Amino acid sequence: MLGSERQLWSHLSDKPTIVTSGARAGWRGFAFQEIEVPPEGRFDIHQAFIALSMTCGPMKVRRGSARAAFVDVPTDPLMMLPGQEAVGAWQGVQRGLHLVIEPDAIERYIGRSYREGAFRRLQGTEPTIEHLLRALHIDVRAGHPSGAGLGEAIVTALLHHLLTEDAVSAPTAAHQPAAPADVKRLQEWIEANLARPITLHELANERGVSIRHLCRAFQAGTGHSPYRYILIRRVERAKELISEGQLNLRDIAATVGFAHQAHMTDTFRKIAEGFRLA
């Protein structure tokens, strides 16, 4: 299990400053932080989780003994897997983005148990992975206005790009094709729970499938990802309430599940361009 925010950095001699954190997002099985390390320090890593990291600027790292030279570390995404170890030191104040995933969470997200060799090796520049990490960072900095669902969708997409083709291609019970009736029941469940935060984990549990399979089935059945479908339904329901004229915009936002009126307004700009809120 993931420990406290500080426990994630117990392998560092000097504890970093946590700049932003997804601790309040309601995510299960993964954590995300932006941290700033002090000017220098040592690390002794015995990795227990899947860790994906990316520094926001250059820094110098020495691996191994104190006799080794410090070398520049690129800003490309780096990954460490359970069982891997690293000892050394760093120089230079720098911020970094860090995603940590429990091995047991892999099955919930893609329907596969974690196994050695399931992840491909990262090769230098990884534009898609960098883009997804930055998207997760934006969601964390914004305070998760759409709830846990966006972060869950981003991590599912990251895992899809990080895992080898063999790790995600073999069929399992959690990847059986969804019948139209299954998607219809999920749509009904969303409608009944629209006013509260909805997580992809909840939706996947409703049908007993992985989050990755849920996203693929929903896309095939509705033409939208679950996350976007929920936003569209909230917008459509908000339009109905606005037309009825019984509630103010703040109350409408709360009634249909938006975090606040500003979140509803921003979502309308993206999805319902041309519709006047007032």
From TrEMBL:
Q: Is Transcription set as a keyword in this record?
A: yes
Q: Which UniProt keywords apply?
A: DNA-binding, Transcription, Transcription regulation
HTH araC/xylS-type domain mapped to chain residues: 184-270
Q: May I ask which residue range the UniProt record assigns to the signal sequence?
A: none
What the entry lists under Pfam families is as follows: HTH_18
Entry's InterPro entries? AraC_XylS_family_regulators, Homeodomain-like_sf, HTH_AraC
SUPFAM superfamilies (alphabetical):
Homeodomain-like
Domain of life, per lineage: Bacteria
Annotated Gene Ontology MF terms? DNA-binding transcription factor activity; sequence-specific DNA binding
Reply yes or no: does the keyword Transcription regulation apply. Answer: yes
TM regions (residue ranges): none
SMART domains (alphabetical): HTH_ARAC
What PANTHER family does the annotation carry? Answer: HTH-TYPE TRANSCRIPTIONAL ACTIVATOR RHAS-RELATED (PTHR46796)
Q: What is this protein called?
A: Transcriptional regulator, AraC family protein
